[in-house]
Structures are given as structure tokens and as C-alpha cells.
Amino acid sequence: MTALRDKLAAARFRPEDQTGADASAIVAQLDDYVLPRLANIDAPLLAVVGGSTGSGKSTLVNSTIGEKVTASGVIRPTTRQPSLVVNPADAEWFNSPHVLPDLPRTHGPEEPGAQADSLRIVETPRLSPGLALLDAPDFDSIDDKNRALASQLLAAADLWVFVTTPARYADNLVWDFLNDAAGRDIEVLVILNRVDEDAMATVPQDLRRMMDEAGLNESRLITVPFAKDFAEFLPDETVAPAREVLSRLAADSAARREMAGKTVLGAMERLVARVDALSEERARQEAFAAQLREAISANYDRASEHVIDATSDGNLLRQEVMARWQDFVGTSDAFRTIERWYSSALDKLGSWFSGKPAPMREVETEIESGLHAVVVDAAETAATRSWSHLGSVAPSLRADAAPELAHASTTINGSASELVREWQTGLMGYIQDNAADKRMKARVMSIGLNVVTVALMLVVFASTAGLSGGELAIAGGSAVVGQKLLETIFGEDAVRRMARHAREDLNARVHVLFEQEEARYNELIDSLASGTTSGEMRQAARLAAAAVREEAGVEAIEPAIIDGEVIDEVKEIESARPTMTASFMDRLNRLRGVPVIREEDRDV
After folding, report:
1. Which of 72, 259, 320, 554 can pair with 58 through a Cys bridge, CB separation 3.0 to 4.6 Å?
2. Phi, psi (5° rounding) for residue 493?
3. Where are the bilayer-spanning segments (predicted)?
């Protein structure tokens, strides 16, 4: 069960799903009740007194004990801070973190305005040892914290003492809790409080019928007549039946053990079934995370493809530069600007061939600017599409995400510039490596490494695919100039190989950059897929279920030795409760991880 608890605590669920709250509730019940009870099946019982607002449960607790241990009154909700009433002999157990470990303990008189975030311990010898009473907040309180705490406390109970009235006994909320009790196989004592003469004739019988139909046919129903005039405590004769039931249970160690065993096994079997449902939801979430990751990845793959297309079919020089000029100049007459860009690059190369000085850095700058603009625009488009998709399929996940994900990263400009520079630097090194003999090296050095690099970049970008008319003349002319220059130095076959290498190198760098941009979304998606997997959850649930069901049908009574000591109580349980078998106790001990040794296996 500890393994199951740890797996559930490590599980992650979508923010908008109730499943995460369900998993937390299961972990809380394991911590608050199941694991402590398995660790000590003979520890004092915890009876949680719960009920609807105005049912009179606090007055009933005080009257049953015969001491004012918890506040009661007309202000609703009356019970805010829960009060746990214990015999001094049991105080150590309930003051320890074994039960309800996340609730700090307080002692002494109730403080006005105390909130439902701590547990007040009240010690009194008037309550028999072996059983503690916890006055819980109203489960139907208007205060959200009160309702949540009431549910948590009821989940930690060995026994529910459920208080209702003729006016409220048929409420849906009442039966939500009682049906949950029936599903958990927990012991329930129902107290119908404040029953006047008119209601006495019909309501108890109707409530009994409803309890039987809900599977609570073995649960006891006690009726407390309406008391007109009383000071602090109800008349003793009205609460005597409830006091007798609780006192008899506290005095009977075998009955307490049987109740604790039945309740903890019922709780565990119910939890295992709930974990199965959680694992199914977890599997759906894992599939959703995979689909979301695939959709985001597709957006960035499209971005890479866009850059590759724009730098291989002439669009880098025809469309992206046009858009960039429009951004700066604010004119739609951008085609002539692009022509001037091509003409300028061609003239500068031509001026070099004619022996005239040319500012080659301007050509490099134009190419860098165009490539930079294409990369940044593609990254922004991918981020926008991904953000939009996230909002349509997982709005709550997007609401919790960093708003910066709606755009390309804040470092995209620098990253794109670095990509261009490193690509150019790589081309320079590659050109030098391919200038194998002295003649080639001399030609490269005489022309200038920058000029040769620019020529190779023009060959890569200025493909004539998809161009026509004036564009074809401009782009084609640029490509011819660059290609002829390179062929003069390296030869035709080598130029084709160099252009292919330059293209593949650029594509690889673009892919790496967009993987980095996509990784920002992957961190968000990982939050859905991280933690315990559905398979791990199911495996832990199966192991827990097997432990619960193991030897459930064995009825032979056999003395057991646990850690070398004979459990004499088994015989006591056999005589007091014939249905409590050694097999039953063995199951509990196996669930606790305690080795069980049969008498016949003991070394003599």
C-alpha cells in the first residue's frame, strides 16, 4: 500500500480535470487512515461524528460524554475547528502524526473564531479508553474549507456516527455520504436527532427503509426524541442508547479489532477501484500529451520546411526581403526594391571582376538580413500556431502557461543571427578545406575568401525554380556569376558538391534552432506526461488488490506468530467473533509488510 501511495503522489493530471483532486484525496486517506491503521490494527478507534448543519451533533457529543467538550450554538456553521475527544490513556496515539498527520494539534479551551485548519485535542476520563469521538464540521457547510475538512475527517474514520434530523434525513447530500459509507463497507451508526411526536410515527421507519435499500441494513439506527427545555445537556435518557453503544464498543477489544479490520479492508478495496479509474484517465492524458506534442512538433517542422523552401526556390530573395522592406518602408511597391537588391548584389560582384573595389560586406549584410528575417518569421509563425492550438484543445493548460509561449523566444533574433554567422563561418572553413592544391588556394586568396563564400551562398539561394520574367533574369544572373566564379576555382562537379553541402549544413542548423524553440512547449507538455505512468499506477493497484484479496476464503483458525511472538488474541477473536479468522489477520499483516509464520513452520 505504501508503494501505491507513493505512485499516486507522484502522478500528474491536467489542471482542469477532477482526477488530480481525486488522486490527492486517495493519498490523503492513505496517509490519514489506511496506513496508520494497518500499522496498528489495535490502536484506539476513531469515531467521527458528522452531520448536516443544525443537526445538533455538538450538543449530542457533549450530552453523550456528560461534559462540555465542544462548542454548540445557533450560529452557523457552529463547528469550525474540529474537536477530538479522547481518554487520557489514548492521547499519545492521537497526538502523534499517525492519524491525520497534516492537521496541527492544539490543546485547551476553544478559541473564538478558530478555523478549520487544526485539530483540537480534548482529554477527558469521562470517555472510555479505546474509542475517540471527533466532532467534525458540517459536511454541507457554506464554508468550502469546512466541507473539505469534513470529508477528509470522515475518510479517516473507523466508525461514522452520522447525525441527521427529520427535516434533513432525505437530503441528497446526506445520502451522498451514506452511500459512500456503504461502498466503503465502513461501520455506520445513524442517529436521528430531534424527533418530535408527529415525526416519531413515520420518520424512523422511513429512514430505516432507506438505509436497508442503500446497503446499510447492518447499521444501527438510534432515535433521539426532541427535548424542549434543557440547559447544556440533553436529558440523560435521550442519549443513553448512543452512550451505551459507544461504551460497549470501547470496552470490547475484539469488537474494536473486527471493526477496524472490516473498515480498513473496505476502504482499501474501494481505493483500489478508484485507482483503476485514475489509471484510465492517466492513460487518456498520456495519449493527449502525445497528440499535443505531435501537433506542436508539426508546427515547428513546417517552420523548418518553410525556411528550407524559401532558401532553395528563390523566395528568400523574392518574398521575404519584400516583406522586410514593407515593414520598414511601409510601401506595397516592394518588387522594385527586390530588383534593386539583386542588381546591387550583381553589380558589386561585377565590379570586383572588373577590378573596381566593391563593398562586399554590403552583399553579405543583405544575404544575412534576408535569411535572418525568414528564420525569425518562421519561428514566430510556429509559436503563434502552437499557442492557438493549445488554447483550442487545452485552454486551462494554456491559462497556466507562460504567456511568452505565444511568440517566438525572446532570444530568437540573437539565435537567428548566430545561426547565419556560424553557417557563414562553416562555409569559409569548408571552402578552405576544398581548396586542396596550391593553385586553388592561390585563386581563393587572390579573389578573397569572403567573395568566394558570398558566391557559394548566392548559388544556394538564387535557384531559378519558380521564378519567371525579370525575376528569372535577376536571380539567374546572380547565380550564373556566382557559379562561374566557383567553377573557375573548383570545377563543376566540386561546385555541385559544395552547394549540396552548404544546403544540408544550413538545413541542419535551422532544424536545431527550431528544436530549441519547440523545446519551450515540450517543457509544458512534459508536465502532463511526467510522474507516475498509467501502467505503473495499474501495477501498484493490482499488487494492492492482490494483497487485499489474498486468502480471503480461508476459514481455518490457526495460531500465528508475527516477528516471533504468538498472537494470543486470535483465539480471543475466534471466541468473540467466529467470523474473524487467522486468515483475516494474516491479510492485514501482509498488507502491513509484517512476515507471518505459521505455528507448524516454527523451528522448535
Report:
1. 72
2. -65, -40
3. 447-467
Cell of 213: 435499500
Residue 349: CB partners within 8 Å, gap ≥ 6?
Answer: 358, 363, 451, 454, 455, 458, 478, 481, 482, 485
Instruction: Count the Cβ atoms, other than its own, within 10 Å of residue 136.
Output: 27
DSSP 48-109: EEEE-TTS-HHHHHHHHHTS--S---SSSS---S-EEEE-GGGHHHHHSTTSSTTS-EEESS
What is the rounded CA–CA span in Å between residue 531 and residue 539?
Answer: 15
Least confident of 99-108, 122-131, 137-146, 312-321: 312-321
pTM here is 0.62
pLDDT of 580 higher than 90: no
Sheet holding 131-135, edge to edge: 105-107, 119-123, 83-86, 131-135, 45-51, 159-164, 187-195, 220-225
435-457 pLDDT, tens per residue? 878 888 887 887 778 878 888 88
DSSP letter for 262, please: H
Write down all domains in the chain, each with its CATH number in brackets: 45-84+101-251 (3.40.50.300), 289-327+359-467+474-529 (no CATH)
3-state helix, strand, coil in the chain (%, to 5): 65, 10, 30
Most confident of 55-59, 77-81, 205-209, 429-433: 205-209
pLDDT tens digits for range 126-143: 999 999 999 998 887 777
Q: Which three cell numbers stand for residue 179?
A: 452511500
Confidence of residue 509 (pLDDT cuts 50, 70, 90): very high
Cα 378 from Cα 408, distance rounded (Å): 9
**SS3 for 416?**
helix
